[in-house]
Amino acid sequence: MKKALIIGGVSILLVLVIGILTLRVVGFEPRDRSAGFWVKGEPVTTSVTDWAFTEQIEEIYVETRTWYLIPHSVNTYCATYDGQLYIFSAYYQGGEFPYGRLWNQNVLRDPRVRLKMGNRLFDQTLAFVAEAAEKEAVYQNFVKKYSDWTSPGIENVHIFQVLPG
To answer: What's the pTM value of the predicted model, to 2 decimals?
Structure first.
């Protein structure tokens, strides 16, 4: 009986490891409103100093680091302000930040992320924008870029800056 339990436990562990490795190879990126795991693409190793090219990009992927070591990725939107890149998280149903979005919690715990734009991957660090004047200015650029977007109001939009570096 003990031998059967050990074999069963090892078998389950082996299936989980194979499943995780398969997901790592395949990627399993987010789709529409459903989250994913790893994003796949061509890593960009040079530092980006001008994010103006993102004004032509409607949607990006953000891969965050979870406490359980399997990435959590989502699709979201970006805009620039004063030469810097910002991404945002809108809470349409209200709810307390960051608890309405797992990726927001992950970023606040570990701000290192991987951004996917087109087929390019950018390893970056995010910072939460708390200063009201900066948030308002960035928010206005989001509204301008995404003119068809129905905003839940600035109080329900949370913005992260991609830090230079």
So the answer is: 0.84
